[in-house]
Amino acid sequence: MAFTSIKCSLVLFLSSLFIHATLGELICEELPNHVCAFSVSSSGKRCLLETMPAKDGSIEKQCRTSEVVVEKMAEYIETEQCVKACGVDRDAVGISSDAFLEPHFLDKLCTPECYKKCPNLVELYFNLAAGEGVFLPYLCEKQRSEPHRAMREFSSSGAAASGPASEEIEAIEFYDAAMAPGPASEEQSGNLYEAFA
Which residues form the signal peptide (predicted)? Predict the structure, then answer.
């Protein structure tokens, strides 16, 4: 089982290098479906799977460029380790906050394995939660202490608040600083997790 996981990771890594070397730039529409979701194009826009009608009348999935811009990351294919650690599904169509409603999603998203090593996915779900009026660090805190309450608060879209607005702004600024361009150092990754812990 472990050998298969390592083999799959190696194939994904090599295919991403091949795609980048061949194309010169990462274009969502040219990515294979199995690495499309959670990738970021050279232009800094998120890639997503969309369903499209095929010529034979069936429905097929295609990789497309979304309008969602990632400010501090480009040309990135999410690793298989992060997909597993954060509990996301590469076959998911579109970009949506629906994952928050899945019972065990927050359990995985709020783990150190996800926050410390997967800034692309943390940034995506941080923004999706904010779009629903929910502060992700607060949601993770509630998930650890009162999992059922965290789910109810997210379901009510906006019932969660972590205190004064200034505290939220400081946490967001800290998050932005931790997501600065360039490879994340262990210290930055650790500080990012502490901000959510």
Answer: 1-24
